[in-house]
Amino acid sequence: MEKMYQDFKDIVEFRLIYIREAHAADGNRPVEYAKEKGINEHTSYEDRCKTAAMLIKDESLTIPTLIDGMDNAVNEAYRAYPDRIFVVRSDGRLAVAAKRGPFGFEPALNETSEWLKELRKSGTEPALANDVIEAADKRAADNSAKGR
Amino acid sequence: MFVFESATLTRLLIGILFHGVGVFATSDSALAWQDKSDSKTQQQERRRQRSNQDGRQQLGQQDDAPQVGDVATVFTLKSLDGESETDIASFQGQKPIVLLFGSYT
């Protein structure tokens, strides 16, 4: 992740978006290191920032980091929990959209890497197929008809 | 004598066979079997219709997450240092952006 950022930050923006803990010590499915490090469900925005800072430090990350609000609005809009990757094209459409969770993360990371390499090589963003755009627009129209 | 016996035997066997089929065809197990195969066919048909309607959705995410091609929801969030904000709409027409969502755990 950090390496990808270093390799491509000159042509693409990167943002790490810190959301609610996936496996907090006091959560439903705690992981061992959450207990060791005392990482609980965030009780405040400051708490979330503190845990994010811990991650940045421990993993030596330099990717610009944003903190999701305690309303988890951005997390919910992107169905991001527990983790997820997206690539947004400069036209605002998604070029890469990971499947849910850890199983979706790795394949999407590879897909992102390929997309970035293609962008580097050709100098332009890989085009989206017309049928993909049409299907997306149809979904958007259906959703707005449903009032979502 | 032998030929007669053989023909009788054959008729007898055919009789038993047809009777057997007749019994089976009206038996509970045969009806259950028919029901099962019907519902399986119907299931397949339903599945086919569904995948025709939104094949792309079926192949992709099982949840209602944003998919490739969708217009990304714009948002503004504060940075970790609290000193700046990112409005992802500001990158439109400028640069692509990689969004990595996650937490420590």
Kindly summarize this structure in a few lines:
Chain A is of the alpha+beta class. Helices cover 47% and strands 12% of the residues of chain A. Chain A is built from six helices and four strands.
Describe what this molecule looks like in 3D.
Chain A has 148 residues and is α+β, with helices and mostly antiparallel strands. Chain A has helices spanning 2-8, 32-37, 45-58, 73-77, 101-122, 130-145; strands at residues 13-18, 65-67, 84-88, 94-97. Chain A starts with a helix and ends with a helix. Chain B starts with a helix and ends with a strand. Chain B has two helices and three strands, in the order H-H-E-E-E. Chain B has a two-stranded antiparallel sheet with strand order 1-2. With 105 residues, chain B is mainly alpha-helical. In chain B, a hairpin with a 6-residue loop joins strand 1 and strand 2. The model of chain B is unreliable at 50-61 (pLDDT under 50). The chains are: A alpha+beta (148), B mainly alpha (105). Strand 1 (13-18) of chain A pairs parallel with strand 3 of chain B, so a sheet runs across the interface.
Rg of chain A is 17 Å
The counted number of beta strands of chain A is 4
- In angstroms, what separates the terminal alpha carbons of chain B? 90 Å
Helix content of chain A: 40-55%
Strand content of chain A: 5-15%
Largest sheet of chain B: 2 strands, antiparallel
Structural class of chain A: alpha+beta
Write the H/E string of chain B, N to C: HHEEE
Number of helices of chain B: 2
Number of strands of chain B: 3
Report strand % of chain B: 5-15%
**Share of helix of chain B, binned:** 40-55%
Give the overall form of chain A: globular
